[in-house]
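Lay summary

Proteins are chains of building blocks that fold into shapes. Our project writes down both the chain and a compact code for its shape. Here are two examples, one after the other.
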Amino acid sequence: MSAKSKNPEEASVTLDSDSELSDWDGPVDIDLTDQSSWKKIKNVIHWTPFVQHFKKHRYPWVQLAGHKGNFLAGEDGAILKKLNQKEHKSLPLLMADILRPYVPEYRGDLEKDGETYVLMQDLLAGFKSPCVMDVKMGVRTYLEDELEKARQNPKLRKDMYQKMVDICPDAPTPEERAAGAITKPRYMQWRETISSSSSLCFRIEGIKKGDGSSSKDFKTTRTREQVKEALKSFIGEDKTLVGKYLRRLKAIRATQETSEFFAKHELVGSSLLFVHDASGHGNIWMIDFGKTTPLPDGVHIDHRSEWKEGNHEDGYLRGVDNLVSILEEL
């Protein structure tokens, strides 16, 4: 697929309105990171999630979360994502792990206009006018060393104070209100408490519907009932689709529980991407590994235990458990 946009900074993923979606979720033994191999087989095989038909069109793009300008359109059902060192180290390991069917395929690196990008599978190729939801997993979206670094130089930040009062005018203390500023550590920790990250170990980051409408207004969506209503709005009344999402989510959870990669890494700021369209196609993938880090020697986590500073727990699996429970209620 070749996709172009007049304004690539407004995009994260391209949408293909003419491709077919395969429901096959198993691993494949072909090394698709080799570009020559990819070109030889992409027009022959149609039964893996990594291979689809592509036609040249213009495609609308979606930016649900993350920094603008991080993504460019690619070819052959791919997107270009600015290289992040932590993600760059994680992707080859994920390609060799049992989690491979549940993450976007990594196809190597590419230099473009002096910038290094990773070439990744376009997860929306194959959906017609897809509905997309980004769910940020875990109890926090900052690494422990990020918090420690912020504490070493706790400058008062007027910009973060403004972000706080824009979301919740009553949040600042009298001292903070008098100063008109807060420190970064204060903002980092407060930000998680107002969303369902602290209560359910996941939060909805953004939703884009098939009609083009989108919303990122979930900063204070905190309670189980609020989250449930948001999921209802995203999925609609299609119980078959709920069943597809549940089966996929349970498969991801079971694989995570036995994955060597998952056992040895702290996953912070990572998301689950939910995608479906009006035809009933639906799928979920693990995305965003820019803050995924190997655990220190001798440290073991179960991704469910309560996070206490220093234990590196991320709450990822507790978040998946809660997502499964809420979808079962739907």
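And here is the second example, written the same way.
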Amino acid sequence: MKISIDMALGGKTYTFTPEIVNSFIVVFVLCIIGFIIGRKAKKADFKKNPKGILLWGEIFVEFIQGLVSQTMGKGNQGFVPYIGSLALFLAFSNLLGLVGLLPPTSNYNVTLGLALITVTLTHVNNIRFNGVKNYVKGYFEPVAFLSPINLLGELATPISLSFRLFGNIISGVIITTLLYSAVNSISVYVAPFLTPIFHAYFDVFAGLIQTFVFMMLTMINISQAIGDRE
């Protein structure tokens, strides 16, 4: 199902593509879930073990904290909120195919935006922890004449991050669409039995794998820039 929105502003019409609309849906759903968990956390008796959605929230937070600690060092727990938000947004986005919606990550604008946020955090925190002098010095190491290559490497980071995620998700969408057409052309009665297999791989398995890969690359890039802080 494809939902697009046209908005008139200043005499011009702007179209929000289905992927962009779906990204707002994901953000809205996550905000609702976060609000519910927050309300339950305020009312919870912390002398008792959490239950239901509060338990799952605690498991998720502890998982992200452990992952950040192992990958980036115990001193970098301040990145947990960003990594956790990234994980939730990507996971929910990549799983939208299960309800018949286009994943937001099948639009390159979305994946590029996420990659640019990661790169911005990398450079800002590099300056924050290492200082401007060491930040600039890093582009001239190990020898000064390699600085153009170092600059090209930094420019390539957001491109590689965004294209890796975008390419894997859009390829899954295309292949699934082609498989649907092939199965329906054979028999519409067979489709309900085969399509869950397609979704299990392209939406659940591949989607969650790409979520984890993007998270890991984000943590590695930031960690390499600022160094492990125990």
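What can we say about the second shape? The two ends are 48 Å apart (CA to CA).
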